[in-house]
């Protein structure tokens, strides 16, 4: 998996890049099954909506083998190494559920706003990568991105601790209106296995999901090693303290694990 | 405005019909301006979201001239008369805001569920008509319809008085999942002036709107005169008691009013 210069230019200009079906059906099926097993667990890394449905599971790469392989997957690590020109460590890893019928809103925000304020990250030299486990459709709460908003830099934000169960530094409506007037809104959709990369300062949010279609997405935040966080305040399962560079696994490691599970089941 | 036999067959089979740009830009501009003036009023017909933003304004056809003309517009009245084979009266008339940033969810429901239980309407022989005042996009909380679900008849429902400020007889997740497995979900979108008709038993809902794009829609519920409500329990501005057949106005009545306003402004 190598990004072309055109893809890199596009990312730098628009602030996001979508790579359809980067993982195949077998790899995705394994990850979905493992995600459900994790959501069923009662553990501090698993956060829930106000009604009890799973909202996000943190740090699954530290306690689940399939997600460990995903978190060190060369199809994700190599392109980001190329963009940043250095090696990476995992700043955050989560599986967001956006459950059928009950998935709640994520208000408009920049992720770097939180990484800077709460974690002491020096620069927005960390990349968000979302791996679709379900088909993302216009109707089941896709991520909404404001193209080119990453060029606005780090914007003023307010700590929202009320709207949902997850505290977030969110932007005011005037700022979002201004940026949307310039860049519009895109909602990248696609089949399971698709991968969306976006800049740490790209403004994004998502509406609730009232449909029967779940919309599970794995988020990796890959930080440049030199950009390690200086003054963390959040638990280490949310903002990791292991700054050692990620050694990518083999490209077929996840696929082989999936085949192994399948063979065992037959 | 006449529906073709093909359109009528399609409506009977799918439970909905979309007529793009039935009203022109001048007509829509007039209605938008009048809607905002109504939302700004403090009156019992104007209901608000929990945060104070307008959610819906009832019965505007009884106290606003532009909406009076819309409520008797031949482009809306004639097609429904044709489908039901008799004359119509206005059962309900409302302007739903789904305001930018704050528009909240409408849970999955059938409108006839409420008309029957709360108003004593004998049969689902009333038509929902929605007139788009803004562009309806996939991202600003479009109406989500479950095609063919009207064929399931009147389904069991629960009175939801908690989720939003508006009490509604809503369906359970198992029922919605079953119907969506059969019919899928469609989200008709289109420019201002488009008109969506759907059957009183068609299952529908809508997610919240977190975008800066408002999504105002006028809803007319046109009931067959013979199907007048027998045991109303809701205020008369929500479930009307004037069962006299609607006399359609001239096709250009709304357009002429819009031109008059424009001429006066120049």
Q: What's the domain count of chain A?
A: 1
Biggest interchain interface, per-side counts: A-B, 24 and 24 residues
The CATH topology assignment of chain A is Jelly Rolls
- Span from first to last CA of chain A? 31 Å
- In terms of structural class, how would the helical and strand content of chain A be classed? alpha+beta
Largest sheet strand order of chain A: 1-10-6-12-4-3-2
**Run of helices and strands of chain A:** HEHEEHHEEHEEEEHEEEH
Please tally the β strands of chain A and state the result.
12
State the oligomer: homodimer
The CATH superfamily name of chain A is q2cbj1_9rhob like domain
Known CATH architecture of chain A: Sandwich
* Mean pLDDT rating of chain A: 94
| Fraction of helical residues of chain A | 25-40%
The main pleated sheet of chain A reads as: 7 strands, antiparallel
Pfam families (chains A, B): PhyH (PF05721)
Keywords (chains A, B): Dioxygenase, Oxidoreductase
Protein name (chains A, B): Phytanoyl-CoA dioxygenase family protein
InterPro entries (chains A, B): Phytyl_CoA_dOase-like
Task: Describe what this molecule looks like in 3D.
The structure is a homodimer. Chain A is α+β, with helices and mostly antiparallel strands and about 270 residues long. Chain A has one domain (about 5-265): q2cbj1_9rhob like domain (Jelly Rolls). Chain A has 7 helices and 12 strands. In chain A, strands 1-10-6-12-4-3-2 form a 7-stranded antiparallel β-sheet. In chain A, strand 8 and strand 9 form a beta hairpin. In chain A, helix 2 crosses helix 7. Chain A is globular, with a radius of gyration of 17 Å. The mean pLDDT of chain A is about 95. The interface of A and B includes residues 108, 144, 209 and 212 of A. Chains A, B: InterPro entries: Phytyl_CoA_dOase-like. Chains A, B: GO terms for molecular function: dioxygenase activity. Chains A, B: Its cofactor is Fe(2+). Chains A, B: This is Phytanoyl-CoA dioxygenase family protein. Chains A, B: Keywords: Dioxygenase, Oxidoreductase.
